[in-house]
Amino acid sequence: MRVKDCTILDLPKIADGRGNLSIIEQFKQIPFKIKRCYWIYDVPGGCERGGHAYKKNTEFIVALSGSFDVVINDGTNEQTYHLNRSYMGLLVPKGLWRVMNNFSTNSLALILSDTEYDADDYIMDYEDYKKWNNQR
Ligand code: TYD
């Protein structure tokens, strides 16, 4: 997988005078079956999340509230996606190094995953990630 395999996907936004509503259904707005949903919140100013790669896990990240950056690196190229809308998200295929930072106050990151949690799926060291990536 390469940085260019990440995609920003638009979600439906149903707006009326009472507020907006957006939707994610598996295999419709996102191309995978949802096995896991988690969210990141109350991130202290200046803190960073992620800083690892998943060997098998693909994910979809939405800024439900506030904003943050998702920095994707494939060992060669790097791209930063600024997420700040609850009607779009970033599809991050497996096999990419990712960091989340620049969280705004009260930001809320929703992450949908196509695998259950598995500590063995993580590559925690960037040099190990590059070696693993080169061997594929
Ligand atoms: P981690 O994935 O390292 O968080 P981040 O990438 O945002 O920095 O997870 C932090 C802790 O939470 C770690 O102890 C593992 C645990 N955890 C679970 O138990 N289940 C999960 O689905 C996730 C994502 C994390």
The helix-and-strand class reads mainly beta
Main-sheet strand order equals 1-9-6-11-4
Fold-level CATH name: Jelly Rolls
- How many helix segments? 1
Count of extended strands? 12
Sheet with the most strands?
A: 5 strands, antiparallel
- Shape descriptor: globular
Order of helices and strands: EEEEEEEEEEEEH
Into how many domains do the coordinates divide? Answer: 1
Residue-averaged pLDDT: 97
Bound molecules: thymidine-5'-diphosphate
Topology (elements, then pairings):
Elements: E1 7-10, E2 13-16, E3 19-22, E4 36-41, E5 49-54, E6 59-65, E7 68-73, E8 78-83, E9 88-92, E10 97-101, E11 108-113, E12 122-123, H1 126-135
Antiparallel strand pairs: 1-9, 2-3, 4-11, 5-10, 5-12, 6-9, 6-11, 7-8, 7-10
The chain binds thymidine-5'-diphosphate.
Thymidine-5'-diphosphate (TYD) binds next to strand 4 and strand 5.
